[in-house]
Specification:
The complex is a heterodimer.
Chain A (H helix, E strand, L loop, with lengths): L2 E5 L2 E5 L4 E8 L5 E7 L5 E6 L6 E3 L2 E6 L4 E6 L8 E8 L7 E3 L3 E6 L1
Parallel strand pairs in A: 2-11
Antiparallel strand pairs in A: 1-3, 3-8, 4-5, 4-9, 6-7, 7-8, 9-10, 9-11
Chain B lengths: L4 E3 L2 E4 L5 E6 L6 E7 L5 E8 L2 E4 L8 E4 L6 E5 L8 E8 L6 E2 L3 E5 L1
Parallel strand pairs in B: 2-11
Antiparallel strand pairs in B: 1-3, 3-8, 4-5, 4-9, 5-6, 7-8, 9-10, 9-11
The chains are: A mainly beta, B mainly beta.
Chain lengths: 112, 112
């Protein structure tokens, strides 16, 4: 059965810290891995990764995929209180339908 | 572009009643996905529709749940004879193709 596992499930840090969120997966027909940020509303898109070893960056956030070891990490540097959210990892393992399999999410709390 | 619009934002139903959740995709998007998020869990795929067709309903419970995406109008997720276990956040996403989608803000269903 296809599955996505995130760790840790929750994390509390102070402003300025750097955090690394992990996502491992097992799917049959990998097409892409996506990261989303969810506050009290819609999940908002962060990154889509399809190739191993190519880092994607957006400001203080970056992410990389390892298709050999079947995992991805999301890094956030110099964290701010506004980074507090649930971070969701999802894998498109459908082959062609675009159906996503989500991990449980990592709840990040950044304290002032 | 108003984004993916879901309504209502909050819905309260008594056990045994019917719940209808609506999703208007972004302009130009003909692919709609429904996901359910139970408390403390990640999003779980329910159904994937294109205009007038159900493409993949492998995540839909066999009974009481149905979905449609008519030629005109929003996509509807219908839950008949709701039970307490149906209480969850239901998210809709739309895309122009079978990847790269945008989520709506969700409908929070509470069954009392």
């Amino acid at each position: 059965e296809d599955k996505v596992v995130q760790s840790p499930l929750s994390l509390v840090v102070h402003e300025g810290d750097t955090v690394t969120l992990n996502c491992s997966y097992e799917v049959t027909n990998f097409r892409s891995l996506l990261w989303y940020k969810q506050e009290k509303k819609a999940p908002t898109f962060l990154f889509m990764l399809t190739s191993s070893g190519i880092e994607k960056k957006s400001g203080r956030l970056s992410s990389i995929l390892d298709k050999k070891e079947l995992f991805s990490i999301l890094n956030i540097t110099a964290t701010q209180t506004g980074d507090s959210a649930i971070y969701l990892c999802a894998v498109d393992g459908s082959g062609n339908t675009g159906k996503l399999i989500f991990g449980q999410g990592t709840t990040l709390q950044v304290k002032p | 572009n108003a984004g993916v619009m879901q309504n209502p934002r909050h819905l309260v139903r008594r056990r045994g009643q019917e719940a209808r959740l609506r999703c208007s995709p972004m302009k130009g998007h003909s692919h709609v996905y429904w996901y359910r998020q139970l408390p403390e869990e990640g999003l779980k795929f329910m159904v994937y529709l294109q205009k007038e067709n159900i493409i993949d309903e492998s995540g839909m419970p066999k009974e009481r749940f149905s979905a449609e995406f008519p030629k005109e109008g929003p996509s509807i997720l219908r839950i008949q004879q709701v039970v307490r276990g149906d209480s969850a956040a239901y998210f809709c996403a739309s895309s122009p193709a079978n990847y790269g989608y945008t989520f709506g803000s969700g409908t929070r269903l509470t069954v009392v």
